[in-house]
Amino acid sequence: MESLGRTWRKLTRRNNSVSDTSSVDEAETTSSDSSDDGERGSARWGWLLLPLVLLLLVLLALGWYWSWMPPSFNVGARAEAKLEQMNRSPVVGAATTITLMEVAGTLLDKPGGYLSNDVTPPSWWLDNMPNWEYGVLIQVRDMNKAMREAFSRSQSQSLEDEDLALAESRFNFNNDSWLFPPSEKQYRQGISHLQAYLDRLTDPANQDAQFFARADNLRYWLSTVETRLGNLSQRLSASVGQQRLNTDLAGDSAASAATPKPHDNYVKTPWLEIDDVYYEARGASWALMHLLRAAEKDFSDILVKKNALVSLRQIIRELEATQHTIYSPMILNGSGFGMLANHSLVMASYISRANAAIINLRELLEQG
Predict the structure, then answer these.
(1) Where are the alpha helices (DSSP H) in 110-238?
(2) For residue 367, what are the contacts with CB-CB under 8 A and spacing of at least 6?
(3) Mind listing the pLDDT tens digit for each residue in 10-27?
(4) Using CB atoms within 10 A of its CB, is residue 356 exposed (0-12), middle (13-18) or buried (19+)?
(5) Mean per-residue pLDDT for 124-151?
């Protein structure tokens, strides 16, 4: 009996040992399976996130490339190449017309194309280039308007040029229309109408299209430029906030306004709009710089006669300074005399000097 008891106890211990071993094996198997599932899940998420990260990097690089400002171009060389391509001789007004076409074409053909109406990434989160485009577009509209109303007409009772009128309506189309129709389509039609005007202007057998390089016509356009630059200068200067006196009715004791305004008010550009105003001014200066170079060629006789050529060149030089490279990754808004730069005030300084020179130029052109 005693031997039977010892045998039973040995069998029991052996069964317990086998049971414990099985439990450990099952636990290790379960742990191994869980670990494998976790690794497979991590691998799946990795394969899903990797393309997204790569796509984001590509979009960021593309947005950075599209945000580069187009370089300036040689107005005289572009005009000569265009006329040579058309097999036409230079005439008065050809340089201005070709330059206007080139400036408008830059909006559409620069890297990324026209971005103001894009609704897909990376365009929809870019705001510097769309504001630059708007500044250029305003100058294109103003020059086209001046050509239709003044440059192409001998007097106020003369007929306006049909192609210039059609081009003006196209350039005045909404700048952020994405579809039905897109803005690009309208602006390309505007360039096509300018090309039709240029074809007739450079055709010796066609006397319908004209360009009158007179002092009063140049003054007409410069008055619009003066107003635009004055507006930009005020908006740029308000980046740090200013307490301004109301001078709306100054100089006329009988003047009145529809809505009374306070005698003294505080003016400041909202913080989120500071870079928008800056790049709009940069785009306007870029376009105006080229258009003034073209005017220097077409109105050279008038400018020499009025001894105003050097004044025009000084305006161009001030505008060239607005195109210097920006080394800061963002538009800084220091307090003017603080430790940080204020890019808006620097831009306002150049534009104000150019505007003052335009006022002097208009006075020179008015003199006999």
Answers:
(1) 128-146, 162-171, 183-201, 215-237
(2) 306
(3) 445 554 444 444 443 444
(4) middle
(5) 95
Beta-bridge mates of residue 243: 266
pLDDT tens for 36-55 read: 555 665 666 667 788 888 88
What mean pLDDT, rounded, does the chain reach? 87
> How far is it, in rounded angstroms, from Cα 316 to Cα 292?
7
Q: How far apart are CA 81 and CA 66, in angstroms?
A: 27
* pLDDT of 352 higher than 50: yes
Sequence-ordered list of residues with C-beta below 8 angstroms from that of 286, at least 6 positions apart, any chain: 69, 70, 72, 132, 135, 136, 319, 322, 323
Listed in sequence order, the residues at least 6 apart from 47 whose beta carbon sits closer than 8 Å to its beta carbon are: none
Q: Which of 146, 142, 193 is nearest to 166 (CA)?
A: 193
Contact 96, 151 (CB under 8 A): yes
Distance between CA atoms of residues 275 and 297, nearest Å: 34
DSSP bridge partners of 267: 242
Other CB atoms within 10 A of residue 35 CB: 10
According to DSSP, the residues that pair with 264 across neighbouring strands are 245
On the question of a cis peptide bond just before residue 130, with omega within 30 degrees of 0, the verdict is no
Residue 303 identity: L
pLDDT band at 197 (very low <50, low <70, confident <90, very high): very high
Find out whether 109 and 143 touch, Cβ atoms under 8 Å.
no
160 CB-near residues (< 8 Å, 6+ apart): 148, 149, 152, 153
pLDDT digits (tens, 9 = 90+) for 61-113: 888 899 999 999 999 999 999 999 999 999 999 999 999 999 999 999 999 99
The label of the residue with tokens 């077409």 reads 298
